[in-house]
Amino acid sequence: MSAADRAGQPALPEDLIDVSHVVTAYxxxxxxPDDVDQQVAFGTxxxxxxxxxxxxxxxxxxxTTQAIVDHRRAAGIDGPLFLGRDTHALSExxxxxxxxxxxxxxxxxxxxxRDGYTPTPAISHAILTANRGxxxxxxxxxxxxxxxxxxSHNPPSDGGFKYNPPHGGPADTDVTSVIADAAxxxxxxxxxxxxxxxxxxxxxAATDHDYLAAYVTDLPSVVDLQRIRDVGxxxxxxxxxxxxxxxxxxxxxxxxLDLTVVNPLVDPTWRFMTLDKDGRIRMxxxxxxxxxxxxxxxxxxxxxxxxxxxxxxHGIVTPDAGLMNPNHYLAVAIQYLHGGARPxxxxxxxxxxxxxxxxxxxxxxxxxxxxxxxxxxxxxxVPGLLDGSVGFGGEESAGASFLRHDGSVWTTDKDGxxxxxxxxxxxxxxxRSPSEHYADLVARHGEPAYARVDAPAAREQKAxxxxxxxxxxxxxxxxxxxxxxxxTEAPGNGAAIGGLKVTTESAWFxxxxxxxxxxxxxxxxxxxxxxxxxxxxxxxxxxxxxxLGG
Length: 550
Hints:
Number of domains: 3
Radius of gyration: 23 Å
Distance between the termini: 36 Å
Mean pLDDT: 96
Low-confidence stretches: none
CATH superfamily of the largest domain: Alpha-D-Glucose-1,6-Bisphosphate, subunit A, domain 3
Structural class: alpha/beta
């Protein structure tokens, strides 16, 4: 039986990485700077790769960190840098390397006072707290920024490195392209311009910061923990071996919640995981296969939740429905928050990525709210969350954040912890689970069928797809319905999609090139059921292939 055939089943010894081999390769393998697959490349969530393939090694982190030091100097960012890491095997080595370069560059670095792991939202929260009341565009005013060493939900052999500027959210391409170009120049130059300090000296120079206490203490400002406590919601929180492992226990204890940390283990092999749908170990809390062990325990808790390795994503498990589709939960969260649960919000806008379910569109219309539809990537929500004009921003891949009770910013990066806690607040406040609320939405708006599939595409075809214009689409209908819009720019902010979205009265599809594989992704949804969805998917491939000249 192949690994893929064991999807949802516990990992076996042959599925596990050799941690020593992965870590040794981080130091021993020298990437080829002329090989595009071994260069520094920032996607929507930073630079990611594996030490075993030459795509994430010490040289990358030396070069990238030096590039960040140089960027900070050029941008006039002279405040502290918050540095955190998750539980992947490559995260501590990369964190160590980064600290050596940052200190050598004269940066004041704040590291975890408990020498523990730091979720992405705790870094964003720390940056925004430090910068509260400051002009984020002013140079030399002590602005803080941050780095999170994490490949998020990626397999155990991978490493990741992402930069969060003073606004606290993911860096935009105007920053990441500069950093990546400078890092690759350092690689080609043999790292001769990279300065580093011996680790012992660098660690002694770093400043301790209690990320956990600062974040956990502040949680009542964004989620109604008192209501959860008073009702006595039984919560099962699974950190999935990730950075939130100590946060969840502290949340339960400090706020008096009936909360069980379902799996308190940290193991860089993730041997306790069930295999994802492709037979690999992956900490994807939106995947029924990866979440199979928690779903099997759904009757033990009123609400069970999972987080990926850096805790920026959420998975919601209820006794009545099992693991909720992320799109379904986003719609429920929006209905609840904007439907009266947050009277302190003045925001009239709801943020969604253009590949998220159009159930959100219908909920927004029902609430009389403006829909802010942006390209894929959480960075697009940063301005709206920062100024409080957007109450909630979410994407179909189970990443979201929302404002504090008073309508001010909480985080500008994804926060899987508050989304997990919100599920318990919904149950405590309404007496019904989020999945029961979704059934209400279906009864009111119809039931969508949603799926994502991949289609093969060479590098040149992916580039062509990214550069498409609406005029390239000659079709006038999809799955028997007239096309109502052909979009290569997001309607919410006019930013390039980097692909194509086509809509009809009851369906839509979007096609985007993969950043890591020779495929393009087709997202599609239909309110006319699975059979119509299949037609939409088939027509989508035909439309895209025709536009690409295939």
